[in-house]
Amino acid sequence: MKFARLGETGSEIPVVIDEGRTFDLRPVTSDVNGEFLASDPVGRTRAALDAGSLPELADADALRIGAPIARPSAVICIGMNYAAHAAESGSEPPTIPILFLKTPNTVVGPNDAVTIPRGSEKTDWEVELGVVIGTRTAYLDSPEEADAHIAGYVLANDVSERDFQMAVSGGQWSKGKIAAGFNPTGPWLVPASEVDSTNLRLRSWVNGEPRQDSNTSDLIFDVRTIVHHLSQYVTLEPGDLILTGTPQGVALSGRFPYLSPGDVVEVEIDGLGRQKQEFVAWAR
């Protein structure tokens, strides 16, 4: 089972993909939002499928793919969470999770074009595993409690502008992370029960050339640890998105050029789908 949202920006239809068929979820929910994710989305959807109350969406393949979750209240990110990426960035692996924020309007469809910010010379790609919260989360007593608060997982591209992130940051990374559209997400939300977050292959390509190729087994802080740690400082709401970090192979390493208008980035995580974005020049 996979949840998705199809249609033009702002008018997406919530759908479920089951055994290769796409069904309209509107008899169950108005959107794949926090309210839906907090109220047994898998059980409710399975019951509706079994009852035959969800109509099949015949033209699904012709529709734009939106982000698989409605706009979250928060997008919280973990930096330098793969040791090899920390090394290529010239840093020691962190001993506690590094936190930065993205704004909700960074979350866009997986194949939407991404605008390179005005004045940018160092726009970069980052394939990442995204965690979607399903239950209000605060002050967890142990990492093991995190599983009950996770609705599912998504593929994300944590697009970054490295000069904004580092040279003019004032010591806080978010300036390089918050340009509109800087978080292509999806194509699907896969329920947590169907994903082993400890063993997922992540890959990226630029103009068809391989860049990143790693596995979530190399995470410094695993998903449970991240959710537990964050819960000590922020109350996570249903539908919120956590990005867990990117592996080595980005332009920041100095081994590859930064992105230019016309470049095409593809990112993929096994079981969570594939994205493809063209990067375009900023225009007034």
Question: What structural keywords apply?
Answer:
single chain; 284 residues; alpha+beta; six-stranded mixed β-sheet; five-stranded mixed β-sheet
Layout of SSEs?
Layout: E1 2-6, E2 13-18, E3 21-24, H1 34-37, H2 41-51, E4 75-79, H3 83-88, E5 98-102, E6 107-108, E7 114-115, E8 123-124, E9 127-133, E10 150-157, E11 160-161, H4 162-167, E12 183-184, E13 190-191, E14 201-206, E15 209-215, H5 223-231, E16 241-243, E17 264-269, E18 273-280
Note the overall shape: globular
What is the H/E string?
Answer: EEEHHEHEEEEEEEHEEEEHEEE
Radius of gyration: 18 Å
Strand content bin: 25-35%
Percent of residues in helices comes to 10-25%
* Biggest beta sheet summary: 6 strands, mixed
Pairing-aware structural class of the strands and helices? Answer: alpha+beta
> Alpha-carbon distance between the termini?
41 Å
Mean pLDDT: 96
Give, in spatial order, the strands making up the sheet with the most strands: 5-4-16-9-10-13
Summarize the structure.
Helix content is 13%, strand content 29%. It is α+β, with helices and mostly antiparallel strands. The strands form five sheets. Strands 5-4-16-9-10-13 form a six-stranded mixed β-sheet, covered by helices on one side. A five-stranded mixed β-sheet has the order 7-18-17-14-15, with no helix packed on it.
